[in-house]
Amino acid sequence: MTHRLNLLTRVILSQSQNPFPTQYSIDEVIGMSVSKNRYKFICYRSRSYGSIKAIDSELKSTGAIIARRSITINDYHNAYHEEERIMYETMIIGAGIAGLTAGIYAARKKMDFLCLAKQFGGQVLESGEILNYPGIVETNGFEFYETLRKQAEFNKIPIHEGEEATRIGKRRGGFFVVTNRGEYHAKSIILATGARAKKLNIPGENRLANRGVTYCAICDGPLFAGREVAVIGGGNSALEAADYLMQIAKRIYLVNIGSQFDAHEYLIETITSNEKVNVIPDAHTTAILGEKTVEGIEYEQYGEKKSLKVQGVFVEIGRSPNTEFLQGFVDLDIHNHVLIDCNTRTSVDGVFAAGDCSSIHEYQYTIAAGQGCTALLKVAKYLHEV
After folding, report:
1. For residue 159, what are the β-bridge partners?
2. What predicted TM-score, i.e. pTM, was given to this entire model?
3. Judging by beta carbons within 10 Å of its beta carbon (0-12, 13-18, 19+), is residue 324 exposed, middle or buried?
4. Over the stretch 8-33, which tens digit does the pLDDT of each residue have?
5. CA neighbor of 301 nearest in space, from 243, 237, 253
6. What are the residue numbers of the active site?
7. Which of 35, 169, 239, 276 is the most exposed place for a label (fewest CB within 10 A)?
């Protein structure tokens, strides 16, 4: 895996037998070269075009192969001695609605920043119809994802996709961020890591995952056309899944652990009035049945064990924040969301949080966007003050 390093520093090539003692002022590492395993050195992009030509000329004179690629973090540490590194002004961790909103505002402010994204768009692709985002009368998850992609490209947001933060800590003058690809440094951090679907943690769930057990009705619903399915849950996500599946499935069993739904009234009315939907209240799902694929579920209701034949199970029981790597770094609430104040500030000075990973607990795109904007504006103010 490779890791691009944006630098502005003076570098001395570190080999003891280094034939190139010249020091170069560089902006960005653009390649690494090894000549018969004797010398390991870097090709740089400089503010001065002349510098690039000089470096290329010296490399070519040795017969070295110039690879204009990003370098690995190990090569980065081994290849040269770093005298000074300029840190990013801010690092945005996550590229869902909150992270991208922060990125848009950072780009418009001409800040030196980077956005790390395990998955571009976060949970947007899991959405069905979107009818409550200001300025957009009607759209769906896929169309909204494409719009976000175009907007990120239009604003030239620097995003490293497929890169997941695994550790954050303090360092002199700011913070370090370790990822599955390397290490970065920034003066401030915006946490926008989002959330993921919760699991039932019952027998059969993991074994039959992707064989009838799914956590995304929008993604996998079409696979169950004309079949009978169970939707587990009683909140907005469960009812939205059932609403979508009504156009696809033959019959839907809505298995709710409570006696009432905790969802929008219009959704409750839509679901309960449809003849395709059977509501099973006060039911605790205990197992998912099947050999090679899902064949049914077991549940307890009013003290009695029951079973139900279905070919698909959609688990929609809420979300867990992606904050495991933050434990011990910032304060979390009892549900492991990052505790923030009304200004998106966390317990660590210089670290802000926005979106579904924060302690607001509302899981709404408009709230995530507002928090992402707030977080970036507060970061700008923080950087000015420090």
Report:
1. 115
2. 0.69
3. exposed
4. 222 333 333 333 333 433 333 434 43
5. 253
6. 216, 219-220
7. 169
